[in-house]
Design brief:
Blueprint (H helix, E strand, L loop, with lengths): L2 E3 L6 E3 L3 E2 L13 H13 L4 E3 L8 H11 L7 E6 L1 E5 L2 E4 L3 H15 L4 E7 L3 H4 L2 H13 L2 E7 L6 H5 L6 E7 L11 H8 L2 E5 L28 H17 L7 H10 L6 E3 L5 H9 L14
Parallel strand pairs: 3-4, 4-5, 5-8, 8-9, 9-10, 10-11, 11-12
Antiparallel strand pairs: 1-2, 6-7
Helix pairs in contact: 1-2, 1-10, 2-3, 3-5
Length: about 300
């Protein structure tokens, strides 16, 4: 495993992280604690130290699975990132809440679920610019940093890739940007990454496998289970994406190379990207994700020697 410095924070993170939305039960299956324990244990054995979760992945359910495991492990071995701003009600049913008082409740609930005294990275979760323009919110969060409940703040951008938020990250005390970035969605390269480099912000690339479409497992016309979030995607767009994936597989992925590993390494080649955070349904996928680190250059500007 290779490691990189996460922007101007003092966090050194594995280039392959662990996304955990799936633990909330919205990706076609429910999890048990022993299953999560197996995934996290294997991730640690492979050198992965970064976990990304959120308040709304099953109403703190993902956080609770992680917290139960970490409480029996060494907390200091993990860099745990979670988010605030959404309230889970039911499967794919959420409302947003970015008020300072509401966020304080969310923070305490996340700390309780994670069974920890501090969160390494607490991220503004896909809010609008209006939600972001809330001085009371950032004042509250700064106080929580001073109190030691939060080590660092970050911004998890929504699909608009807000430059308003990106350019004001340092101003509100954020040192990390999380953004959708993969071979099928390169939009952040246009502006977001330039601003991140100028501010020395760490960059977390989420959905690096394009919701699994870049795994190489699905052909055009693939069908997903009714409780799989991908079933709600526009199916014409999905068909077009999978046709594009077939072309990429034939023209860009080296012969004999696993496409998922290639797709993760592809993201990590960009000099702005610190870490990719693919999800994984089982231990085999953790192992496949971790193998991508072998294809990543150690000469990256953020590499930790």
């Amino acid at each position: 495993m290779n490691y990189r410095k996460l922007g101007k924070s003092n966090l050194n993170v594995s280039v392959i992280g662990l996304g955990t939305w799936q633990f909330g039960g919205e990706w076609g299956r429910d999890y048990t604690q022993p299953e999560v324990d197996g995934i996290l244990s294997r991730a640690k054995e492979l050198g992965i130290n970064f976990i990304d979760t959120a308040e709304c992945y099953g109403d703190h359910l993902s956080e609770s699975f992680i917290g139960d495991f970490v409480s029996r492990d060494k907390r200091e071995d993990w860099v745990i990132a979670t988010k605030f701003g959404h309230k889970f009600h039911a499967h794919m049913d959420r409302t947003t809440q970015y008020g300072a008082d509401e966020v304080l409740v969310q923070l305490d609930n996340s700390l309780r679920a994670l069974q920890t005294d501090y969160i390494d990275l607490y991220q503004f979760h896909s809010g609008s610019d209006d939600d972001f323009n809330n001085d009371k919110l950032w004042t509250l969060l700064d106080k929580q940093v001073q109190a030691g409940k939060i080590r660092h703040l970050g911004l998890s951008l929504n699909k608009s890739n807000s430059m308003h938020q990106t350019e004001r990250a340092t101003e509100v005390g954020a040192s990390v940007i999380q953004v959708v970035y993969n071979r099928l969605d390169r939009e952040p390269e246009a502006d977001v990454f330039h601003s991140c480099k100028a501010q020395d912000l760490g960059v977390l690339a989420r959905v690096p496998l394009a919701s699994g479409y870049l795994s190489g497992k699905y052909k055009p016309g693939a069908q997903f289970a009714a409780n799989d979030v991908r079933q709600k995607h526009d199916q014409e767009a999905v068909y077009a994406k999978l046709e594009q994936v077939q072309h990429i597989m034939q023209t860009e992925v080296p012969a004999g190379m696993n496409m998922a590993e290639w797709a993760l390494a592809w993201c990590l080649k960009h000099e702005a990207v610190t870490c990719v955070i693919p999800g994984c349904k089982d231990i085999a996928q953790v192992e496949s994700n971790a193998r991508a680190a072998a294809h990543v250059s150690t000469s990256h500007p953020q590499a930790v020697i």
